[in-house]
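Same chain as my last thread, 689 residues:
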Amino acid sequence: MPLGGSVLSGAREPEAAAQAAPPPEPYVGPQVKMAELTVKAVALGIAFGVIFGAATVYLALKAGLTVSASIPIAVLAIAVFKKLGKSTILENNIVQTIGSAGESIAAGVVFTLPGFLFLGSGPAGHGVGEAYFSYWTILTLAMVGGVLGVLMMIPLRRSLIVQEHANLPYPEGTACASVLIAGEKGGDLARTAYIGLAVAAMYAVLQRILHVIAEVPSLALKATNRYLPAASVSGEITPEYLGVGYIIGPRIAGILVAGGVLAWLGLIPLITVLTSPDAMAAQLTRLGDFGTLTKAGWDPKTHLFANTALAVYRGYVRQIGAGAVAAGGFITLIKTLPTIVSSFKESIASLRRRAAGGGEVLRTERDLPISVVLIGSLVLILVIAVLPFVPGTSIASKLLLGLLIVIFGFFFVTVASRVVGLIGSSSNPISGMTIATLMATCLVFIGLGWTGDVYQPMALCVGAIVCIAAANAGATSQDLKTGYLVGATPRAQQIGLLIGVITATIVVGLTIRLLDHPTATSLHGIGDKYPAPQATLMAMLIKGLLAHNLDWQFVMVGVALAVTVELCGVGALSFAVGAYLPLSTTAPIFFGGVVRALAERGRQAGSHAEAELGPGNLFATGLVAGGAVMGVLVAGLSAFDRPAAFLDKISLEHALAHGIGAGAYQILGLAFFVTMAGILFRVARRPQS
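reply #2:
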């Protein structure tokens, strides 16, 4: 989702022929009465939404990446209901509809709301946005954005999902329908995913609790090295990164690691040669990044850093990477602009063409009434205006925020739905849409004379809610497409989506606050242990536009890099995210992509559904879910003194590092990681049932 994408060339060529195609017959006919929005389906959907929502928060904060949850949840739902008793295909559909809301909400929240921590400083020196990074503010903004995304899709469903069925394939939604129908016919798809989850959990216990496996093996060269001064190669060898790399494939994983190679083996050595340690320390001081000064081991007496690579990365390279990410987002938005314009025009025209209709409405055509959309939107505006912990200087200013949110929200919800209908949710360019929203909002603020630091949280509030709404609208569209194909009741799905949004926001907010507990070098875990690349970028853009507080020379270098890469025919946004993130994040992801490339050698490419249901993909999904959930649990235990002390007591890291040596300890960790990759390879090579 965060990596953006491009519109498929020729995507609209078959439109004339497709318009004559008859609508598909749903798997469950409209006259059939079948259990759907039941208590057990809602309960299981909420449970999966909690698990995948928490996992997505963890993964997005660390790596800036997410993976689609709809198909894994559908597979797991079928397996769970088989153990508990019979279920209908419509109940299974409700489970994946509710559960997938957690992933989309988490993605939109993590890509924006941590930006409150990185905004400008107020009169007392405290960050102007830090007070808003509270559980209740996160909960409110996430809920407003998620509900807005669902509400806006209610009037758009008939025009985009039904009338445009032949033109908008919605690949994940279509694949998920195939999964549900296959599950109805029989088969054991989930066993492989559960094995992957178990392997990830055992690995995580060895790595994060017992510390038998080194977390980040690394090879760092000294700043005085003649060939690559301060160059560093490292890898955070976790199961979730291996799984993500396998899922996204070797091409995107390769582009990601290419950005990291340029940053850590190119830019950092170059800047180390051209910049003195005193200048690096001054740059970090000017940025107010005193935590890095401590973490990088700055010694004012010797005028040297113990970790020069970290100082250069935090002082210079991250700003270059942020410029590249911003440019990559704009390039993605520009590439999808023709689709955006035509999508909006066609959606408005379709709404105008809709007849009032008469007689009894078929079950498969029953939506929530339009009054719910209008009243719901008004309530959301009032919530933003009234609640004291939402950014704003007065009721009037908050009402303006609400108006901007509804206007931008409707536009980009329409755009997001149509774009994912063509190229899939994983290519939903929400980063570019959020950047465009922030720029438009900041221009409105500048026109009103709102240029002080106090207005920065307000701008981020608009961008965050629109981002969450667009992310959720993309996932909602895929769910509605699945329901259209299997014969679900739209009204039941829309109610399920609202339930999923509300429960997901509760858990997402708790997970973010849990992971943000102070570290040894910072008051916040986010920004230190968890980079949160997109959120940092959003904050930098707002500061640059409203407070003129950016090192534009470094940002423009990043812009030039993104443009250069795009001109070479490579996805600029993927490369830029790789340049922004530590190489320790992108290297193990690339390793997962290599495993997939080796496993698929000699195989013919199948359909999207076949690829999603392959044993390798299901096992990798288990690795991602198991590793990320264990990471959240360990982070939660570490937030409390007594559990943290117990974890320190049972850790074997000190004994192993001293017993076999630090180098051998890191090699032992790599051996475990390679073994896990070997298991993934063996599973992926199995014939698909």
